[in-house]
Fold:
Amino acid sequence: MERFRRASPTAYVGLKSSTLGSPQRRWIPHHLTRRDGFVYNVLMASKHVGELEHMVLLAIVRLGPEAYGMSILRELEDRANREVSRGGLYLVLERMVEKGYLETRMGDPSPERGGRAKRFFQLTDLGSEVLRVSGRSILAMWDGLEPLLEQGR
Amino acid sequence: MTRHTPPEAAVRFLRWAIAVPDTAEGVVGDLHEEFLQVWERRGRRAASRWFWIQAIRIGCVFRIRGRSIRQRAPRRMSVVTRLWEEVGQAARSLRRAPSFTILALVILALGIGSATAVFESVRSVAITDLPVDQPDRLVTLTLRDERGRDAALVPSQISDMARQSGTLQSVAGVLPRTGSMPITEGGRPLVLDFSFVTSGFFDVLGARPSLGRLFRLADGQEGAPPVAVISYGTWQRDFSGSHDAVGRHLQATQYQGSYEIIGVAPPGLDLPVGVDYWILPGSRRQALEVVGRMEPGIEQEVARTEFLTLAQGLDAELAGRRAPTNATVKGLTEAVLGDARPLLLAVAMAAGLLLLIASANVAGLLLMRAARRMQDITVRRALGASAGRIARGHLMEAVLLGVGGGGSGLLLSLLLVRVLRVAVPGQVPRSDLIGLAGAPLGMALGVTTFAIAVVAVVPTLAVARSRMLPGLHRPERWTSSGRRVQAARRSLVAAQVALAVVLLLGAGLLERTLRHLGGLDLGFETAGVSVLELGIDRRDLRGPSELADLLEDVMGQLRAIPSVDAVSPLMARPFTADAGVYETTPLVEGQTEEQARSNPSVPLESGGVEMFATLGIPILRGRGFRDQDREDAARVAVVSEGLTNRLWPNESPLGKRIRLALGREQWWTVVGVAGDTRFRRLRQATPTIYLPWRQFQILPMAWTLAVRADQGASELTPVLRNVVQETDGRVYVWTVSSLGARLREGPMAAPRKTANMLTTFGLAALLLAAIGLYGVMSLAVQEQTREIGIRRALGASEYALSRRVLLDALRTVVLGGVVGLGAGLVASRFLAPLLFEVRPTDPITVLGVSAVMLCVTVAAAYLPIRRATRVDPLVALQAE
Structure:
């Protein structure tokens, strides 16, 4: 039997159930059908996304089609009050692209950027799933503890 | 605001650190955005500093922690791969414009091919050393008497010289000009020129044979069998380069002579020029010139003075000459090449000019192409492509064209070298070296590199300097870069015109020379006259009277041929001033020997009764020869008019007597005066003394007959052969040619062939200049379409428009033409030795060339003018 392929930006994960538990590891045989470009694959999704990644994903969702390096940085600064080093941010973005959570799209070149194009990021289905899982986890942990947010430290 | 760019180095650092191109573009682009904002807020310096800090930080992060990401980076292409890609791009771009590419390739191939062939030939002929040891130590020494005539030495004197000389290591003798005699080899007749040399000749030179061996001292001793060494060219031509040439025999049917071929000389040993084979002197009184090898450390001048001193100590009478008073020394290489240098130089310059023109033409075509793509270039620059990258693309195209042209040029040059070897004028020495060295790869490479340099520089500079404009400029508008391109293009065309003018000037001068030479009154008629050379097997003939009878026999039979009008023997072939021609200083009755020394030295001609009728030389006074003028009758002579005026200025020469050569006792009575002729030298009419052949019997090695007939030489030949064969088996026909052919192949050959070459080059250059002019004019008309439309709309007539375009074209041409005329008039000095009665600054030629240029200008501008006048004002104004 062939080994599984690493998750790619176009990977789709089929989860047996969307319960709040860790999804089960599944080995999906290759002879299953491919439908609409979806490839059934195994996710190494026992890991949740890290905190920064979580935030970046959220920012991207919120920014919609205008999510690129600069705008993501700004969003994090303005909304989450979080100063991120550029290098760190770009690295994180690249890692997530590699893991398949994000896909990229090159925009139009413009003179303001010296003739270079903007690189837009967008969540893949896998990324959405991962975000949802992580989000639910966090929210589940925060459940009932919202007053903590109000109190000063 | 968009003009501010972040520090290039920082950008490059980032791009290197991030490696993945898309990521890098996004990151750098983002930084660029913010960079501009920082600039707005805090100024340039702060922005640069900020940018650098960000770049370093991000770069470090990516380098240190981003290893996995970098694995996605495309592998850096090696330089070779990148180069190959650029080459492919250039090739594709050229393929999209096939007509341009093919035109450029053809032009380059022509220029490179002809230049390579000519340079290679000139190099092998003039620059490679003679195939001898230490050629700079070899000299030729000539003696002259007080009148300036040659005073040569005989072989024994040369041996004496060798013993006595302290400055010359070794000495040999050589006949400085070639002679010819009828020979056959294996039954087939050969027409070859020979020279006499002493047996030490090749040893002095230090030459090595191509086959067999060369002369040894033993070959010159009494009783040694007669031997011959053939030249390399003869070996290739007449013996097909076969190895069994050694051992064959050259039969000289005049004597019992049979020369065994013992070897073949090395290629390029052309001493004297045009020699086909060397033999040892048949007579101990053969006059020879001296070739010597100087002792180490001796200067030419020292050798010369010693030589003269020694020569004066020798017995001058032995050679039948006067005592020498002057000696000249010349390096051997100079002696072989000297006369041909101007010709070689002219031809090399012509080829170089053609190469220059062709390259300039292609450079112009490339400029035009770049101008047409200016819009495309501007867009690319606006998108951030560096000037360097675009220029490199154009450079690559130019180089590709150059290489393509060079390759096809090399092939063309192989063909041209073969043509050159055949078509080269006889005066060019060492022509057997042309094409010997195989494919001229080195030369082709050098020439191609030069062509590429010319072709690539101008367009690349033009492209690299083009400034980016705020908006995309419209092609019809004149822009600063467009104007500059136009100016460059025009100056290229002007340069081509100048070069074409130089070449045509030379060609024109030579054409006029040929016209003059051809129109000379020779003093005799060439039409209907053939020159026949007979070989005689003398083995069982006894004495001069038998020979004379034989000749009369043959002539009688020839005269009996219906189409033949007159026959006369000649002393030697026409238009040769050397071997077989006798000169003498006559002594007029009443002069003392002292006075006679101031008489001119005059060539002698001997002929038969019908001599003057055969050659068509008019008898001005008195009579020609009669049948009675034989051995037993009184000696008579006919003198030419020029001589009459010289010797008997105011009186009739008829009845006066002269002696030929001092010391001879015979008196000859002048019975007639003939017109002056140019029988020996074409370029000057020489005074002549004519003697009846039966009274002046110098038995030549071959009999030369002049035959006047109704038929031409080619039709006559078989008839003559038959008749001669039937008359006597000991006589055979060696060569037959018409007098006109001898004239063309002899003295007219050099100027004719040079003229042909210059004309060919000149016309090619003219064609290229015309193409260039046409290109410039059509581009100008295209760019000025709007302006022309406006003028039309305002009522300008077709005539006015045409005139504008024409004047525009003329401006360029006149500029180039003036420069060309100036340069040409200076350069025409090189042609001076070939010219005849034509000054190097001949005004008629100048006018002619100018007229040609004007016509070509009009022709080249014709189509653009038509296009201009056809412009529809409405269409032109709307074309925005």
Remarks:
- Residues 467-478 of chain B have pLDDT under 50 and may be disordered.
- The CA atoms of residues 41 and 111 of chain B lie 61 Å apart.
- Chain B touches chain A at residues 1-2, 5-6, 20, 22-23, 25-34, 36, 54, 57-62, 65-66, 68-69, 72, 382-384 (CB under 8 Å).
